[in-house]
Design a protein that fits this description.
alpha/beta, Double Stranded RNA Binding Domain, six-stranded mixed β-sheet, 6 strands, disordered N terminus
Length: about 210
């Protein structure tokens, strides 16, 4: 009887540990892509996180985490903060000075678009084909920065919604855009780790990455 009790207790503890060790889940709930760029040609990516300028450490962690996910998959990825100061805005002059000539095939840009403390796990946000300034990197960047500098960040029991865009560097043209939801993260690093893997898997499966 005692032996059975210990076996049962061990099973319960093991089950609890498994569930506790599971991090938050991230899902791409809406996307758009430009099919002509699905040529398995991207093997070097610049990673740019758009966050409140008063939170440079968050941007640092985000860019490092997303870059690590791509690097682990065999795609070279570089955080923008490795190349330029976090205080410097990315305009055409900054791109020319810091990024041109470094061999980037694409730039991936993410920004926070929503925090929902009330929603349960359910279908994602409706998402339509991007338009207007989404098609140009600079127009999108400036609009996103204004939003980022007035947004708040993580707390418990919420859904974190991020928008991620992939731009071709030659034409600065949007070639993929997606909305992701991360359910109930306890800290920013959980969102970053979960999102990084999902992004790599998605872009690889759709034929953008040179794997």
């Amino acid at each position: 009887m005692i032996k059975k009790y210990f076996l049962f207790a061990s099973l319960v503890i093991s089950t609890i540990m498994i569930f506790c060790s599971c991090g938050p889940s991230t899902e791409i709930v809406g996307e758009w892509s430009e099919d002509e760029y699905k040529t398995n040609s991207i093997d070097k990516i610049l990673v740019l996180g758009i966050f409140d300028k008063e939170k440079p450490l968050l941007r640092r962690r985000f860019e490092d985490g997303i870059s690590a996910a791509f690097n682990e998959s065999g795609i070279e990825a570089v955080p923008s903060m490795d190349i330029m100061s976090y205080k410097e805005e990315i305009d055409s002059a900054a791109v020319q000075a810091h990024f041109i000539g470094k061999g980037f095939d694409a730039v991936i840009v993410s920004r926070l678009v929503g925090l929902d403390k009330e929603r349960k796990v359910q279908a994602g946000y409706a998402y339509t084909i991007p338009y207007g300034n989404y098609y140009g990197f600079y127009g999108y960047y400036y609009a996103a920065v204004q939003y980022a500098n007035t947004s708040s960040y993580l707390s418990k029991n919420l859904t974190v919604v991020l928008e991620t865009n992939l731009y071709n560097t030659d034409e600065k043209k949007l070639i993929w855009s997606g909305i992701s939801e991360t359910i109930d993260p306890q800290k920013a690093s959980e969102v970053i780790g979960s999102l990084g893997k999902v992004l790599v898997d998605k872009l690889d499966s759709e034929g953008f990455l040179a794997n």
